[in-house]
Amino acid sequence: MKILNDPIYGFITIPNTFLYDLIQHPYFQRMRRISQMGLSYLVYPGAHHTRFHHALGAMHMMQQAINVLRYKGVSISEDECNALLAAILLHDIGHGPFSHAMEHSIVEDVNHESISLLFMNNLNVSLEGRLELAIKIFTGEYHRKFMLQLISSQLDMDRMDYLKRDSFYTGVAEGNINSDRLIQMLNVVDDTLVVEEKGIYSVEKFLMARRLMYWQAYLHKTSLVAELILTKLLKRARELVHKGIDLPASEPLLFFMQNKISLEKFDDATLDLFARLDDFDIISALKAWQYHDDIILSTLSKMIINRDLLKIRLSSEKFSKDDVAALTARFLDLNNISAQDAPYFIFKGKIKNQAYSKDMEPIRILRKDQTIEDVADASDQLNLKALSKPVTKFYICFPKQLR
């Protein structure tokens, strides 16, 4: 048994050698070099925590949930327990550099969940099938559906840890949740995860915290514009590489810029190259690219390295093509750049925040009379119904000289 000291939960235990070996694997250790919150440290200086921290925290939450459910008479075997802990440890292993910031920049049409599954299948071969049950739970193929809900749902161990952890490291107190209370209120009825009625206020607080964390941290306009610049930057680098222009970059980063990889092409060799990619590849590339002859690549690289970003304006109303055209015309007058390249610096888009979705599997509240109800219907809080409506905001980005 190994004990780790976590700044949020205190001591976290790794209960057996199987899980310890999983954590020791290079694929898992790579998560030490993947930031949990992308470029949010440009806004919140403390937000330097990693996917490694989060995975261990989520495992700790899962251990607590298993203990509570067992105490309440829910049968969970040792094999199922290990599978749940392994699945939650590996649920984010497929993230690329800077987590969500580069989800579709390195590998264009493959999401991190699909890459996580590729890693799990690969590890399963080297572990002689010991991850078989974890993979079944992760993919929803296991007959006990509540186990998948513990890993991936609107009230899962993943969300419980990242809200608490991200709130702690950013200092955004509004995101803090009472995870102990939420876990103590969990139960299973007819193979479905439920929250006992006494815990409804904790669920309401959890959903409100999630909404506030999205606006204050995850979708904060400065980290949003930094992530958009990073996406544009990688697009430009890929264009230059395809034109035959040499760019200083690590071997795995060059490979993914030179090749468009679909899920079908993601073989073991590609997976090994992806496993060599982390935040450091991107940062070292940006440090070199800021001195490149290509003015677009160098300017965008300097913006992130020096935190001298584009201006971003948010609005509840859509920005028109005329808004973009007017800014572009002024930009072209002031700079020696072509109209074709202006969209690297002037662009618009939208973001959406929905704390709770009625279209997804609901958070179920177990009433004292043993009936089960969707939390949005069971709650007497009017704002909970409001939280289930998506809120869309529109943004426009442009150089500061155009303010």
Q: DSSP strand (E) fraction?
A: 5-15%
Structural category is: alpha+beta
For the terminal residues, how far apart are their CA atoms?
58 Å
Question: Low-confidence parts, pLDDT < 50 over ≥5 residues?
Answer: none
Query: What overall geometry do the principal axes of the alpha carbons give?
Result: globular
The helix-strand sequence is EEHHHHHHHHHEEHHHHHHEHEEEHHE
Q: Tally of extended strands?
A: 9
* Radius of gyration over all CA atoms, rounded: 23 Å
Name the features.
alpha+beta, 403 residues, 9 strands, 18 helices, 4-stranded mixed beta sheet
How would you sum up this structure, described in words?
- With 403 residues, this protein is an alpha+beta fold.
- 49% of the residues lie in helices and 11% in strands.
- The protein has helices at 17-24, 26-29, 51-71, 78-90, 112-126, 132-138, 145-151, 157-170, 179-184, 200-218, 221-242, 251-258, 268-275, 279-289, 295-305, 321-334, 375-378, 382-387; strands at residues 2-6, 10-14, 186-189, 192-196, 311-315, 347-353, 364-366, 372-374, 391-398.
- The strands form three sheets. Strands 3-4-7-8 form a four-stranded mixed β-sheet. A three-stranded antiparallel β-sheet has the order 5-9-6, with helices on one face.
- The longest helix is centred in the middle third of the chain and has 22 residues, at 221-242.
- The chain is globular and about 70 Å long.
- It starts with a strand and ends in a 5-residue tail after the last strand.
Structure at a glance:
The chain is of the alpha+beta class and 403 residues long. It is built from 18 helices and 9 strands. The longest helix is centred in the middle third of the chain and has 22 residues, at 221-242.
